[in-house]
Amino acid sequence: MTTTLTLRPPYLIFLGDETRKTYGKTGQGIADWRPERCAGQLRLTPDTLRIGLPDLSVEEAMAAGAGSLIVGTALVGGSLPAAWIDTLCRAARGGMDIVAGLHSRLDSIPALVAAASEGGARLIDVRTPPADLPVGSGRKRRGRRLLTVGTDCALGKKYTALQLERDMLAQGLNASFRASGQTGIMIAGSGVPIDCVVADFISGAAEVLSPDNTDDHWDIIEGQGAIFHPGYAAVTHGLLIGSQPDAFVVCHEAHRDVVSGWPHIPLPTIGEVIERTVAIGRLTNPAIRCVGISVNTSHLPGAERADYLQSLSDRYGLPCVDPMAGGTQALLTGWERLTLA
């Protein structure tokens, strides 16, 4: 019952005129985890953020055989700026599928519908949940589950889950990444866009995302929102209750101290996130426990990274890693933390 995608590579990642890295996380995630499927990036201004791909125009991308233009931004509210429509229409008229993970649907834009019809292109809205999702049952399911949770949004929950899956598979463990957001679904090819599920069905959608499995199997579930977030805490609560995680990893960004986009809201401490996650998660899994901390240290000088991670590890008595700088092996060392015997 999960959303399954078949996207035509190679991809042209469209970044519009977005300058803020936080809101370019969709494009950056695809470039980081599926670079072999990417032809280039399309930026409308010299100041637009870069995601490490070659700059291409629509025409250059078509000449290179690009099959899909993917909107690589995720703005607050999930809207599509009117100034971007002409570029998307040119790509669609040229036969490129248009792919987006926005709350506003592509087929609600008449000019884009007409351009896609003219060019024989598909309009693919990733943020469309499956039909007939159930209300959460709270029934205990077979298999093991790990959920990534955060002190805030856009700081590494998806990257941590993907790296955990990669490292677990490399060690011969039985694990699957479960995507709960538009970028993760584009990377994995399947999942459930939890943040656009009607509230009554969020926990049920999480149960669908992570169904019964063998006793030795770990679902590594991509977290959404943040449990203290003034705008997105609701989806976080529903995902946590429905996921029934045996284990969770708290994700944080070094030296971020206010909620991104809500500068009047101070960030909770890692300890506060652990405490509240356990308190809520015990509703459906009394054995839930925190097994580690994952930190985005990209803004720290390299020489400071090890000391920063060690200080957090000492403070909370948990292994602490930067998954993109050193992998997640430290979370997996002493595997008894995750066997939860």
UniProtKB/TrEMBL annotation:
InterPro entries: DgcN-like, DgcN-like_C, DgcN-like_N, P-loop_NTPase. It comes from the Bacteria. Residues 135-332 form the D-glutamate N-acetyltransferase-like C-terminal domain. Gene3D superfamilies: NAD(P)-binding Rossmann-like Domain (3.40.50.720), P-loop containing nucleotide triphosphate hydrolases (3.40.50.300). Pfam families: DUF1611, DUF1611_N. This is Putative NAD-dependent epimerase/dehydratase family protein. Coiled coil: none annotated. Residues 54-129 form the D-glutamate N-acetyltransferase-like N-terminal domain.
